[in-house]
């Protein structure tokens, strides 16, 4: 066995990492990542790298998140002057060389979140003058450090910092930050804050604060932070709050003084008394947007005192994912109904609402948008909420009651008939199983969503003709034959359609979605029937890959037609025939034999016929047919002769003639006038002394076709019998003999007989 050289061993060591999806660079042992697309975006996340990998210097975006890179040297990113975005999220990164980012002059986004950075070094960012987005969240540093690491970042617009370990914020920590579009601060355990630290940032866009600890134990600190970021134009988002007692709402007085207009709560809990105190604090303020999400209500819903507050300025009220701790003691949300009297947009999502009394609905005079999705509304309670079809909610334009256990489509159509300004209705994810033959709808309705219900069979005239957008996705429909002249978008994915709906029903349709049905195929005539169709999604169906369909679809996938297939190419997969099952239509290549079977068979038969004709002509020219006939006749005669020889003891008894004379009819004169008399008539022989003798030689018995052939027998049989029953065959050769077919037959038969009988069986006479 050949010994490994040192070079071979080195090559083997380089190939080992490739087995694990990495490639080692031969210079310094660093891994190489080659997962970059045509836009120079390199996704090297979740790859198990322990060092910064080598990537192309043309990279514009580099994602190194979710690896195991614990430290960065000054050379790891050397040469990446074109890099615009760097993501080092969730690496366990603990040590970064002060000059690690010096060559990243074009960097605009940097994510260092969820690592192990205990100290933030201002030198990291000294050359990142055009940095716009910086994320330092959830690292174990206790302070930002001094001098400010943001000094010189004049283009910084999005800043996120903080984490569980952040304890203090000093006035100098954010020097250099002049204006931000988005500020996120996680300071749940903040213990020290210099007033005005965040106050110098102006203008300030959206602010997200996590101040769980300060709101519980240091309300003065929480108030100072809120005072610095509260502006009328700045939306404030507060996360992870636990409001208990009057003291916990005092910081909101600072926001009230600044007359904030947008306030959001996410992941917080509140008691009855604290909620009332909160509403009292912001009473009369120009709050126009109130957003509450993931709230836990630790009370019984007794908020009577809050009824006297003034919230006429609220324009949008959003409540989602409300959880009542003691649901059996909880009264209802009705005592907060005053918050809904004035807003134009109200969303109460997944809050266990089972009814909104009609009396409350009558007070919603400004309501234009109502979202009651994912609640417990039934047909009876929705009837009460919509006042049994009475003309309330006169300004309502959008109604979303999806995700409720509704069963009667005819009832909901009746309830919204008098909503004369309603344009959008979402009743998806309900329990509708059938569609009545007719329904009444407001003439203004343009958007209808009944997706993910349980509708079966086919559509009916229940659907309004005024629709411009219709979503019937993920039902159990098999047919669609309703005329909708104004429809522009139709979504039918997830049903059981065998083909595209007839296009003449939708003269203005521009977008059609038919994914996850049971379509077998469609063609250009189907698309042309729509007239104005521009976008089609028909992937993930059970396509039968015929030649016409494959050619058509491959052309459409190349965007060669007026209709664009806007879904992914890998969604178009052959289901049959069996040998193409699972193969992408775009990769199918069918042969001419399969695609043009009739033409192929016709051409093949034509070629075969032509070859046959040419072969027949060639065989005729070579007298093959004559030889075959001769062989067959000889075999028959030979078999007959053998039978006769077995029946006769003496073979000589079969010889009836001394010779068979073969000649051309044109030479008959010479044969009859000279040859026959010479051979058949007796001749006198002279003695040696010249005297005559009376004795004569025996005359020969000749077989002539004119005289001895049996009438009625085939001429071939006569020829064979004559040759077989004659001791010799005499051929009179002449030009006429050569031109005679029968003479040639007789000559060739004699050849066969020569091999059969042996000896000198032929006598040739050259006449010419």
Automatic annotation (TrEMBL):
Gene3D superfamilies: Ribonuclease Inhibitor (3.80.10.10), Toll/interleukin-1 receptor homology (TIR) domain (3.40.50.10140)
InterPro entries named among the record's database cross-references: Cys-rich_flank_reg_C, Leu-rich_rpt, Leu-rich_rpt_typical-subtyp, LRR_dom_sf, TIR_dom, Toll-like_receptor, Toll_tir_struct_dom_sf
Keyword annotations: Disulfide bond, Glycoprotein, Immunity, Inflammatory response, Innate immunity, Leucine-rich repeat, Membrane, NAD, Receptor, Repeat, Signal, Transmembrane, Transmembrane helix
Biological processes annotated in GO: inflammatory response; innate immune response; toll-like receptor signaling pathway
Keyword Cell wall biogenesis/degradation: no
Functional description taken from the UniProt entry: Cooperates with LY96 to mediate the innate immune response to bacterial lipoproteins and other microbial cell wall components. Cooperates with TLR1 or TLR6 to mediate the innate immune response to bacterial lipoproteins or lipopeptides. Acts via MYD88 and TRAF6, leading to NF-kappa-B activation, cytokine secretion and the inflammatory response.
PANTHER family: TOLL-LIKE RECEPTOR, TOLL-LIKE RECEPTOR 2
Protein's name in the database: Toll-like receptor 2
Organism of provenance: Poecilia reticulata
């Amino acid at each position: 066995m050949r010994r490994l050289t040192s070079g071979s061993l080195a090559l083997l060591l380089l190939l080992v990492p490739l087995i694990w999806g990495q490639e080692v660079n031969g210079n310094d042992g660093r891994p190489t990542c080659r997962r970059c697309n045509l836009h120079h975006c390199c996704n090297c996340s979740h790859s198990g790298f322990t060092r910064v990998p080598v990537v192309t210097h043309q990279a514009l975006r580099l994602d190194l998140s979710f690896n195991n890179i614990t430290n960065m040297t000054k050379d790891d990113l050397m040469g990446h002057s074109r890099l615009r975005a760097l993501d080092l999220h969730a690496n366990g990164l603990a040590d970064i060389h002060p000059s690690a980012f010096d060559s990243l002059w074009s960097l605009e986004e940097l994510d260092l979140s969820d690592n192990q950075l205990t100290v933030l070094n201002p030198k990291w960012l000294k050359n990142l003058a055009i940095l716009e987005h910086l994320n330092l969240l959830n690292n174990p540093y206790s302070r930002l450090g001094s001098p400010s690491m943001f000094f010189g970042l004049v283009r910084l617009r999005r800043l996120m910092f903080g984490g569980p370990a952040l304890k203090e914020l000093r006035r100098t920590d954010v020097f250099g930050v002049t204006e931000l579009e988005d500020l996120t601060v996680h300071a749940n355990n903040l213990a020290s804050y210099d007033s005005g630290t965040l106050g110098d940032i102006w203008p300030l866009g959206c602010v997200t604060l996590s101040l769980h600890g300060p709101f519980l134990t240091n309300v003065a600190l929480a108030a100072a932070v809120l005072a610095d970021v509260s502006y009328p134009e700045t939306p404030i988002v507060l996360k992870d709050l636990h409001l208990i007692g009057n003291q916990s709402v005092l910081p909101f007085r600072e926001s009230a003084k600044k007359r904030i207009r947008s306030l959001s709560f996410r992941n917080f809990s509140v008691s009855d008394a604290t909620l009332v105190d909160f509403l009292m604090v912001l009473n009369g303020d120009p709050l126009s947007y109130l957003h509450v999400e993931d709230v836990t209500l630790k009370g019984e819903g007794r908020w009577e005192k809050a009824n006297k507050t003034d919230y006429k300025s609220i324009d949008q009220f959003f409540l989602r994912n409300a959880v009542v701790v003691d649901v059996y003691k909880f009264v209802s949300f009705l005592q907060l109904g005053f918050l809904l009297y004035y807003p134009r947009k109200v969303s109460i999502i997944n809050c266990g609402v089972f009814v909104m009394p009609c009396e409350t609905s009558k007070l919603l005079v400004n309501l234009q948008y109502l979202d009651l999705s994912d609640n417990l509304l039934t047909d009876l309670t929705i009837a009460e909420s919509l006042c049994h079809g009475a003309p309330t909610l006169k300004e309502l334009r959008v109604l979303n009651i999806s995700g409720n256990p509704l069963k009667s489509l005819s009832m909901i159509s009746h309830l919204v008939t008098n909503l004369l300004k309603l344009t959008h209705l979402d009743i998806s994810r309900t329990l509708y199983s059938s569609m009545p033959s007719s329904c009444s709808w407001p003439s203004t309705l343009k958007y209808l969503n009944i997706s993910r219900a349980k509708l079966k069979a086919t559509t009916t005239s229940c659907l309004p003709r005024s629709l411009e957008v219709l979503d019937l996705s993920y039902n159990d429909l098999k047919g669609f034959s309703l005329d909708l002249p104004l429809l522009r978008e139709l979504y039918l994915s997830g049903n059981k359609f065998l083909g595209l709906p007839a296009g003449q029903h939708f003269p203005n349709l521009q977008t059609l979605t038919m994914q996850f049905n049971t379509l077998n195929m469609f063609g250009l005539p189907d698309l042309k029937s729509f007239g104005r169709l521009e976008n089609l999604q028909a992937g993930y169906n059970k396509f039968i890959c015929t030649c016409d369909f494959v050619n058509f679809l491959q052309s459409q996938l190349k965007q060669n037609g007026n209709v664009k297939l806007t879904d992914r190419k890998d969604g178009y997969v052959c289901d049959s025939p069996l040998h193409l099952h699972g193969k992408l239509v775009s990769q199918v290549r069918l042969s001419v034999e399969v695609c043009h079977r009739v033409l192929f068979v016709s051409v093949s038969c034509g070629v075969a016929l032509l070859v046959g004709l040419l072969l027949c002509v060639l065989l005729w020219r070579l007298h093959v047919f004559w030889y075959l006939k001769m062989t067959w006749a000889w075999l028959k005669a030979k078999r007959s002769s053998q039978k006769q020889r077995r029946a006769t003891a003496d073979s000589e008894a079969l010889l009836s003639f001394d010779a068979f004379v073969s000649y051309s009819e044109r030479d008959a004169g010479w044969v009859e006038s000279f040859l026959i008399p010479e051979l058949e008539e007796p001749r006198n022989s002279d003695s040696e002394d010249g005297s005559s003798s009376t004795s004569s030689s025996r005359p020969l018995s000749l077989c002539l076709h004119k005289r001895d052939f049996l009438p009625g027998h085939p001429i071939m049989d006569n020829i064979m019998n004559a040759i077989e029953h004659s001791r010799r065959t005499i051929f009179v050769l002449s030009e006429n003999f050569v031109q005679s077919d029968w003479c040639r037959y007789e000559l060739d038969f004699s050849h066969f007989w020569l091999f059969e009988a042996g000896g000198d069986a032929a006598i040739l006479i050259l006449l010419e």
